[in-house]
């Protein structure tokens, strides 16, 4: 997600992008609706849509819309014209996927690897494998790398302190020279929120926050329709905010960081101190399963966990005033988020400062996309790089 120069041609592309986003996020849209929604004149909308149809991003079809209760010409995303390649690197797994423009996943390869085993050679193998599956009839819009934490390439400088043994520039050059496609890289929470905005629960929300729990703890925010991106594409490191000044030391140097309490491994470690959990295999997964079956002991643990997770949500709510907080997971698809969102929502709205100033309550919802959200967000980022 490179910074773009703010000039006339950029503004033209922004309009193209807004129109495209409108088609993604609304059912059965036509030119009039887009004009209303974007504030662009009918003539401007027609001009841009004609070019998007010519460039084969969109098609227009006449049919009866159940939603709008009328027959008209509606816009659709083109099928089988464009695709993207997504490489999602997470703690303990690499997913490589080919997605069509409309978000359909055509190929998904999953590899189990620890961070310390990931290097350039491995990624090149994964890329070559996934590129072999890319349909010949489709044009590839690019390849995106999604990684947790700060996205950097300084392999030599960072080698001693971090688990990254790979270099983004090396990979980028390899892909560009061999496949002649665009290559982008982004932070996982930022990208997951883009996925939610175009395909999930953040659709048509001006101010939304993604709260990412599981192996790592992260967040991302759209404020006034703009994704907040920090230095080096970093997202919001909510996991490294102190919730207990007397707490243990964190690897980041702070004390009592949120991640030390609600990061999956740390939570599990704490649970194992209790006599009855010492020997339970896959403890967290088991607890979520039992709680879903209404086991009261397991439910009690999940509620306790949800209360701790709320600390991060309250901070995010106070900092960014979102209308919606979307809860998603990393490396923890088995978390039953429905069990915890209502607890977090209650805690957030109980403690919220702006609520006390008669603001609207904040919605806290579970992502319906979860791990798929990263792949869909990857599609959006690659699309953005083409506009
Ligand atoms: Zn920390």
Q: Write down the overall mean pLDDT.
A: 90
H/E series:
HHHEEEEEHEHHEHEEEHHHHEHHEH
Report the span from N to C terminus: 11 Å
> Which structural class do the helices and strands define?
alpha/beta
Identify the strand order in the major beta sheet: 5-4-3-6-7
In the predicted model, the low-confidence regions spanning at least 5 consecutive residues are 1-6, 154-163
Give the count of helical stretches: 14
In CATH, the topology of the largest domain is named: Nucleotidyltransferase, domain 5
Tell me, briefly, the overall form: globular
Number of strands: 12
How many domains is the backbone divided into? 3
CA radius of gyration? 22 Å
Percent in strands: 15-25%
Sheet with the most strands, sense and barrel status: 5 strands, mixed
CATH architectural grouping of the largest domain: 2-Layer Sandwich
Features:
Nucleotidyltransferase, domain 5; 14 helices; globular; 387 residues; disordered N terminus; single chain; binds zinc ion; 3 domains; 5-stranded mixed sheet; Arc Repressor Mutant, subunit A; alpha/beta
Task: Describe the protein in words.
The chain is 42% helix and 21% strand. With 387 residues, the chain is of the alpha/beta class. It folds into 3 domains: 70 residues, Winged helix-like DNA-binding domain superfamily/Winged helix DNA-binding domain (Arc Repressor Mutant, subunit A, Orthogonal Bundle); 121 residues, Nucleotidyltransferase, domain 5 (2-Layer Sandwich); 166 residues, ATPase, nucleotide binding domain (Nucleotidyltransferase, domain 5), CATH 3.30.420. Strands 5-4-3-6-7 form a 5-stranded mixed beta sheet, sandwiched between helices. A 5-stranded mixed beta sheet has the order 10-9-8-11-12, with helices on both faces. The chain has a two-stranded antiparallel sheet with strand order 1-2. The longest helix is centred in the last third of the chain and has 25 residues. The radius of gyration is 22 Å and the shape is globular. Bound molecules: zinc ion. Zinc ion binds next to loops.
